[in-house]
From TrEMBL:
Keyword Transcription regulation: yes
Protein name as annotated: START domain-containing protein
Gene3D superfamilies named in the record: 3.30.530.20
Alphabetized GO MF terms: DNA binding; lipid binding
Principal location class: nucleus
Keywords: Coiled coil, DNA-binding, Homeobox, Nucleus, Transcription, Transcription regulation
Organism of this sequence: Acer negundo
Length: 503
């Protein structure tokens, strides 16, 4: 892992415990106090902090912000279909947490447990751990935010728990320049009847905007890109995914996968595909990727390679990832609907060679049928049968903060074995390509992606392609030119199809 691990000394621990208690006190107050501490930002549909009121109301943590730093602070509340125990398990287990929030958390690990992994009475009550993580926007031209911080879990009253984070930069000694400082942030979780929970999420950070491209500056500086709304809608979508995936919905769809085990296998493949895609588009990819060509701005293409050796989830040899980000003057929902629609796929997908795309299997993973995992078969123009040359696994997902259309070609025989209970889905070779769609920050939002009809979109396009059987092979200039041309051609086709060639 490429994130830097600081050194924790014995005499640091008492300070960390004191910090945890004070941070919990502030988080609870920030979660419970309403106006005028918090005000509604109708530009992007978020609840943001009134900093002057914050300074007067909560003086304990007020210090002068470092020169050039800006504050981002927001709060959101959501009722989710998951019990309190499972939510806390996700937050306190770094592997679950980074997987559920993979579109936000690019890398994470627990550095040290300062209490047992289970606290009082076998719960996480009183558990304190030191963590390090990087937070991302799915684009190579928005720098990730690395933070070293404590995470503390506490039961407040019988039915309410809290989990708080706060940076340890003033305690831990590191050689890195601090670009992001987490003030007390986290969530209150209140148990509700019938397995539901009410979650109030607070994000409060001070951040240096160097490393954010102008294309994304409005979205990031508004607090929308890394704010509380993004966390709660991601948690809500995860809860819906689990609930709906385990039950056949009453709204039937052609090709619905009705077998419970088949649905679980396909969803696991989709999760793995999404995590791999996000690792390729992150501004600070993990150490397995090597940069060949670094794009520095909008419309530039970043090229990276990785060696696949003894990895059953990827073909053995050299894999290349090509990524670019650009703006479209059309709404995110319009871009999402266009890219996920199998009837319009041949308008942009160069690799389908203008063939017909047929959906052969479908799993809904949200209340809207556009949120789904699908099996797609690409047919030649001359073919009328269901047997095509290419089979794709695709996930389409959207929420009020971001949309994704991610796909990967799969081996037909291996896929049939997986669906029939044979080969384990974690070992199917997947090289994901696709799109991350974000609002550009110019629209007035009213709580859903549909409301952003007047705003534009920020689109990241990424391809992962197998290029050589030999690991560590040198990528030829001819291959580089071909891949860049593939990306450019795809971008041009999308702009032409959406009538925005001059974007």
């Amino acid at each position: 892992m490429s994130i830097v691990s600081p050194t924790l000394k014995d005499d640091d621990k008492p300070k960390i415990f004191q910090l945890a208690v004070a941070a919990m006190e502030e988080l609870v107050r920030m979660a419970e106090i309403g106006e005028p501490l918090w005000t509604r930002n109708y530009l992007n549909g978020t609840t943001v902090l009134n900093e002057n009121e914050y300074i007067q109301t909560l003086p304990r943590w007020i210090r002068t912000k470092p020169v050039g730093f800006q504050r981002e602070a927001s709060r959101e509340t959501v009722v989710v279909l998951m019990n309190r125990v499972n939510i806390i398990e996700i937050l306190m287990d770094v592997n679950q947490w980074s997987a559920v929030f993979s579109s936000i958390v690019s890398q994470a690990m627990t550095l040290e447990l300062l209490s047992s992994s289970k606290g009082e009475a076998g719960t996480y009550n009183g558990v304190l751990q030191v963590m390090t993580a990087e937070f991302q926007v799915p684009s190579p031209i928005v720098s990730t935010r690395q933070s070293h911080y404590l995470r503390y879990c506490k039961q407040l009253v019988e039915d309410t728990w809290a989990v708080v984070d706060v940076s340890l930069d003033n305690i831990l000694q590191t050689n890195r320049a601090v670009r992001c400082r987490r003030r007390p942030s986290g969530c209150l979780i209140q148990e509700m009847p019938k397995g539901y929970s009410k979650v109030t999420w607070v994000e409060n950070v001070e951040v240096d905007y160097r490393g954010v491209h102008d294309l994304y500056m409005q979205l990031v500086s508004s607090g929308y890109a890394f704010g509380a709304k993004r966390w709660v809608v991601t948690l809500d979508r995860h809860c819906l995914r689990l609930a709906i995936a385990s039950n056949i919905t009453t709204n039937s769809h052609t090709g619905d996968v009705r077998d419970h085990e088949e649905r679980k296998r396909m969803l696991r493949m989709a999760d793995r595909m999404m995590i791999s895609f996000l690792a390729g588009v992150s501004a600070n990819p993990d150490h397995t990727w090597k940069t060949v060509l670094s794009g520095t701005g909008g419309d530039d293409v970043r090229l990276m390679t990785r060696d696949s050796i003894y990895d059953p989830t990827r073909p053995p040899g050299l894999v290349l990832c090509a990524t670019t980000s650009f703006r479209l003057p059309v709404s995110p929902i319009r871009v999402f609907d266009f890219l996920r629609d199998d009837t319009t796929r041949n308008q942009w997908d160069v690799l389908s060679n203008e063939g017909v795309v047929l959906e052969t299997a479908h799993i809904a993973n949200g209340w809207n049928t556009s949120n789904c995992v699908s099996l797609l078969r690409v047919l030649d123009n001359t073919e009328n049968s269901s047997q095509g040359k290419m089979l794709l696994v695709q996930e389409s997902r959207s929420d009020p903060t971001a949309s994704f259309v991610i796909y990967a070609p799969v081996d037909t025989v291996a896929m049939d074995e997986i669906l029939n209970g044979g080969e384990y889905p974690d070992y199917l070779t997947l090289l994901p390509s696709g799109f991350a769609i974000l609002p550009d920050g110019t629209a007035v939002h009213r709580g859903s992606i549909d409301a952003a009809a007047s705003g534009g979109s920020l689109l990241t396009v990424s391809f992962q392609i197998f290029v050589d059987l030999v690991p560590n092979a040198r990528v030829s200039l001819e291959i580089i030119a071909t891949i860049i041309n593939l990306v450019a051609c795809t971008v041009e086709k999308i702009k032409a199809s959406l009538s925005c060639e001059d974007a």
